[in-house]
Predict the structure of Sulfite dehydrogenase.
Amino acid sequence: MKNSKVIKMSNLDVSEVKESSRRDFFKKSIMYSAGALGAGSFLLPTSVSANEKEIMQEAQWSTKLGDPVNKNLYGLPSAYEHNNIRRTHDLLSSGDAYASISMCPIHESEGIITPNGLFFTRNHGGTAQVDPNKWRLMIHGKVKKPIVLTLDELKKYPSETRIYFIECPANGSPEWRGPQFNSLQFMKGMMSSAQWTGVMLKTILKDIGLEKDAVWMLAEGSDNASNPRTIPVEKALDDVMVVWAQNGEALRPEQGYPVRLIVPGWEGNLNTKWLKRLEFSNKPWHSKEETSKYTMLQESGKAIRYFWVNEVNSVITSPCPEKPWSDLKKGDLVEIEGLAWSGRGTIKHVDISLDGGDNWVEADLKGLVLPKSWTRFSYIIKWKGKPLLLASRATDDVGHTQPTIDEETSKVGVESVYHRNAIVTWEITKKGECNNVQIRKHKKA
């Protein structure tokens, strides 16, 4: 994109920006509230114009009946939220809309749960429309009691509900050589987070029994691509789930209806949709999708296979190119907010830099902090109308911290596609515009 650029730096001269305390932030909020209380029956601030008062007093929705409760029995988002949608791009497609991906609008996300209609999708052969009455799950191979389950039989197992993110390992992949998209959605939208309901796979395996030499599991979907993937039994016996519900409702077809696999913290392609078969063996399968794709190419030209875990990562979601600070005035208190996640465990802390990584301060973690789930972070500053280079850096409870771009590329080069977790930086201009940039510095000698 035309506004994206690489910034090569040795010593960046960035004006000091002081942190504003939360006390100041809330004090200002209380002051606004007090002004509203003295403004009359509509509780309007005294600064509200006559035109704005008229708009509020004569709003059409307050002068007539709304829609009857039986108009949309499933429910629809407001028509005014028409921009909050998944988006696609020709650069992220095989040339059609079948083997393709749609990006989650994470810049519009609230909290740590992605609505089902906005959850990112990655298909290898289109969205399968599976009849749940004819769906079956076969579990066989090196098991003591091979079984074929109907959906009703699967649901007889005790269920659990957990919150996990799913991230495509190619999330951020166009950025290896330099900034490509001046858009958070297209840069980091190959991920989402949801509440999943189903049965722990280890519960089923305890019921049917595994042979002693069963050390690998093959998961296969029932769509025309099938996307078979090899998973070690240690993971299958840990936190893998066989799920039929997402955010309190049945899985949608785009997310693998009626049943999919959830492999928490690991590459999204392992979370097999439209699941039909689990086979156990003493050897891995070396399937097409785990040999020709989903490998980690190194600078030497050799690739690492079975590179499963999504590393610790973070990104600032506000501001971002879609949500700049162009409406701020000097002296305004503003919240920097973002998402952090790790496939290895729980986010321990997140640091914020205002000067491209020369100096760091610790942000606050907001709301639920769960393993292998999105975690919200926040930091409040006073806007001075001066250029900034905003960056975030997450650390998980295993001790892994996001690398700089130079640290990451010095180890794996720039020819890779997957597992990019280098620090993301936004350039904020003095006008509050926000651009995707890359900082080339802090390279270890």
